[in-house]
Amino acid sequence: VLRRCGVLPTVAVLVPASSMATVLATVAVCWRIWRAGASHVPGVMFPAISELGVEMPQKKVYQLGFGIGGALLACGIALFELVAAHGVLRVASMAPPETLQQMRGPKPLLQQEQQPLDQAGLGTEAHKLMNSLLFWGYAAAGGVVLQGVFVLERSIGWRCFVHWGGAVLFMAGAMQHARASNELYALAQVSADALSRARQEMPTVVPGSARGDVAAAEALGRRLLKDGGVRNALKVRRLIVDYSSIVLFAVPLLAQMLLPRAAPPAADAAAVEAGATADGAAPTEDATAMNTMGLAQWGIILQFACYFCTYTADLRAASL
Fold first, then answer.
1. For residues 312 and 303, what is the distance between their CA atoms, to the nearest angstrom?
2. Whole-prediction pTM value?
3. What does the alpha-carbon distance between residue 270 and residue 287 come to, in Å, rounded to a whole number?
């Protein structure tokens, strides 16, 4: 219906982008309200994201924003399944025989060293990767909704456990989705290059139906994988997956270097005797540690939000 109406390319771009924009806007608004409210901890600039939804009125903003953001993320995965998945899967499953040798290198794309892959095995692995991509994508979207609707509470209860479970589900889903997506697209890119060479080198004695299948798959691969936006999106996705562990290390280190440190114990003791800290608030736990952990969490969430947003390029190329 969307394709017939001519709005599919627009919707394909807006849905993933809106999901990321909604989540980032929610965090920004909740952070602003938190900073001006009574729950603000002196010296803390980057609290844990979950802390932003504990108190009213930002609690309602947190629930609504993350609920909508997670629903939009699920819609983006559904759009990918309907618009782009079949094409990517077809290209990845039609690799000529010479592609198999490339996959048997020192680091096989599919990590299948026990048995040599044949054409049927290649198609089976491509289907497994696609199923994993879609399943974990929906799981990550469900995690966003769960941790958003069931916010953290001051006293530990069942809602807290649902919230933490949702956060874990999002992280596990996003990581597994990203790994499956990168492996599938790497396979599809190798297949597309091999199909392009096969079309040029295919002898004229080959039956026309076979030449037509190769030509159709090659054209599909060129449209889905050779587009400039898709190539850039794939580079970004590989960078996120390959270097996410560096973010886990670098962000806390930068926080320790750049963010203000909490007062030393002696100064805290003096402040307690005086009844307040320098800015008039009661002394609190180490603000540097809170900033460090919070900033690391913000960085991880941001990189996976960017990862899912890059599918705008894939959906746009597939919808044209």
1. 15
2. 0.77
3. 18
